[in-house]
Design a protein that fits this description.
With 398 residues, this protein is an alpha+beta fold. The chain has two domains: 3-20 and 45-137, Carboxypeptidase-like, regulatory domain (Immunoglobulin-like), CATH 2.60.40.1120; 146-319, Immunoglobulin-like (Sandwich). 21% of the residues lie in helices and 40% in strands. It contains six helices and 23 strands. The chain has helices at residues 8-20, 315-320, 322-338, 344-349, 352-367, 373-397; strands at residues 3-4, 45-55, 67-74, 77-85, 91-99, 104-111, 114-117, 129-136, 139-140, 146-159, 162-173, 178-179, 185-188, 194-198, 206-208, 212-215, 222-235, 239-245, 253-258, 263-265, 270-277, 280-287, 295-301. Strands 14-17-11-10-19-22-21 form a seven-stranded mixed sheet. Helix 5 runs antiparallel to helix 6 (373-397). The longest helix has 25 residues, at 373-397. The chain is elongated and about 65 Å long. The two termini are 29 Å apart.
Length: 398
């Protein structure tokens, strides 16, 4: 079975929001005011969608006959799929396509056991051709090229006798091949963990075990090979001795907990600074690189607060709301602290996918009344502006 890259529907819907400034279903017809003329909707052009399949691992390998699928989405989901075969040069084409400017298109293909997708694109008014570059890779089961480039761990309380721990892993694949482990990647959690919850985007790839879970997912080459976000609970009686070990080399990361509420100790950590997340003070700590299997040893002490301030209590909020906001804040803060001055601007702006995640977080926060309307609107305008700029830059480069 193909291991499909996750997040696709959410990215498409939010891409529509970025490019079209929101996308609403067609409204009922309304009679215009006297003296005003109705503006006719622009005609939908019939054109073609074509592109090129590129094998980035080995350009000499033929992709002749590879089935390429064209997808079209509106804000409610997928509305079109068509298939065509690539020729010996990797070229493919879909003819006589209605290039509705209100749809987002992309192409995908399954190659060597992994499904790959292009960047999304949308036809401009009057445009009659779309071009896609679809990059595929050879696959390997060898995980030696994988590492955790950044990790962020947040602590909070949902009840007095348990501590909630949220973790975000950003993976790096240093090879030129997609890593597709035959038996998945096993993640070990501390003894006594309960209430494991994972990001719904990766949930179909997760198998829970007595020791933690296994993720059955392929990891693409590059610095953003994939990410894992999950949370779990541990018993807590005013203190916790925590030892965490990881299946891959870890290049460092941050720890986050409510400021002035708890104490965190460990010989491997150094104090960071207090940052504000969703109007809450959060104390950060930095931990160093660790080898695969090496432990991060921590001691947490202090009386738990009466209510959770960082991690929400419901499953829906945990996977898409405050914990992502918190962990993302740690991600950008850690990036600014550890990258050179030359790279700091890139750390602030992030990638197009980062901005899509930020939009999802803001919308989730606002829907749960966790963000004031004025602050929500101001932040969303800024994030959407950055997302649109990054999308246009990628589209121009493609």
């Amino acid at each position: 079975m193909d291991k499909v890259r996750r997040f696709l529907p959410a990215v498409i819907v939010l891409t529509l929001a970025v490019l079209a400034d929101g996308f609403q279903p067609a409204a009922a017809s309304i009679n215009p005011e006297p003296g005003l003329q109705e503006t006719a909707a622009p005609a939908i052009q019939t054109g073609m969608a074509r592109g090129q399949v590129l094998n980035s691992s080995n350009p000499e390998v033929s992709v002749d006959g590879l089935e390429v699928t064209l997808h079209a989405f509106n804000n409610e989901g997928q509305v079109l799929t068509l298939s065509a075969a690539a020729d010996g040069s990797g070229a493919f084409a879909f003819m006589d396509i209605k290039l509705d400017p209100e749809l987002v298109f992309l192409v995908s293909a399954a190659y060597d056991g992994v499904r790959y997708s292009s960047l999304p694109a949308r036809a401009g008014t009057g445009e009659t051709e779309l071009f896609f570059q679809l990059i595929v890779y050879e696959s390997t089961e060898n995980t030696s090229s994988l590492s955790i480039s950044r990790m962020h761990i947040a602590f909070d309380f949902l009840e007095e006798d348990a501590i909630r721990i949220g973790e975000l892993w950003v993976l790096h694949n240093a090879s030129d091949r997609t890593v597709n482990p035959a038996n998945g990647l096993a993640v070990t959690l501390p003894d006594g963990f309960t209430g494991l919850e994972v990001d719904p985007a990766i949930e179909p790839a997760i198998t829970v075990t007595a020791a933690g879970f296994i993720i059955d997912q392929a990891f693409l080459p590059g610095e953003d090979a994939g990410s894992l976000m999950f949370s779990y609970s541990l018993p807590y009686q005013r203190s916790l001795q925590l030892s965490r070990s990881f299946p891959l080399p870890l290049l460092g990361g941050t720890l986050m907990l409510p400021a002035n509420r708890l104490s965190l100790h460990g010989s491997q950590i150094t104090d960071g600074e207090t940052i504000s997340v969703a109007q809450t003070g959060v104390q950060t700590y930095i931990f160093p690189a660790l080898q695969a299997g090496e432990t991060l040893d921590l001691q947490i002490t202090g009386a738990p607060p009466g209510t959770a301030l960082l991690l929400p209590s419901s499953r829906e909020s945990m996977t898409g709301g405050v914990v992502l906001l918190l962990l993302s804040a740690g991600f950008f803060w850690f990036s600014r602290k550890t990258r050179s001055d030359r790279d700091q601007q890139a750390a602030r702006t992030g990638s197009y996918q980062d901005t899509i995640h930020q939009l999802a977080v803001l919308d989730e926060q606002f829907s749960k009344q966790a963000l004031p309307p004025d602050e929500y609107r101001q932040q969303r305008i800024g994030v959407k502006s950055q997302a649109k700029k990054l999308y246009e830059e990628k589209h121009d480069q493609g």
